[in-house]
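Quick one, T. Sequence first:
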Amino acid sequence: MRNDNRGGNRRNNRDRPDPLLTVEWCRVIDHPESDAAIVVVTEPALHVIRLRPKPGAAMQMVGARIYMGIDHSKREVVQDVLGFARIRDLSNAANQEMPIVIQQIIEDSPEVFIQQFFNRAGNLSLKMHAFELLPGVGNKKAMEMVSSRGRVGWDSFAQLNEDCNINAAELLARRFVSEIEDRGLQPRLLDLLLRQGE
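Structure tokens:
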């Protein structure tokens, strides 16, 4: 019986689309040696994965944006997608760089993060607003942010940061990193904002 269940589980996993099949771009968080696996964060869904570089490919700098899509003719650096990285196995360097690189991705996509989160976030319950998921933002600060947002919302991170006296991209990056490191953390902004179709 046990084997049948495992086979069934395997089939169920196959029925779900591979979230990496549609990924085209990613950013490097660790590449310790030229022939070693490159650890990257995908855009925009923020999966942490490992890639095999092409033979002779140069070392990749942290934060470098590289193509990993299915069109192999466009791949300058990537030979193969090795799969998801185990977070507990990441190097200290990767752990230190991940929040910085994720913040970079957020800042480079204000249309996603300002429009989809900061301009739309509402109450999660009678007592909690979605802004309270951000590190260091309590109920009082969340209500100040809602008041500052008004009906129109923000156009840029600069405007948002100035109005609310925060670094919005950094706070959101820190929340995303917490969710990547702890899959049990609920609710998950990663799933609500970035991974709905997977």
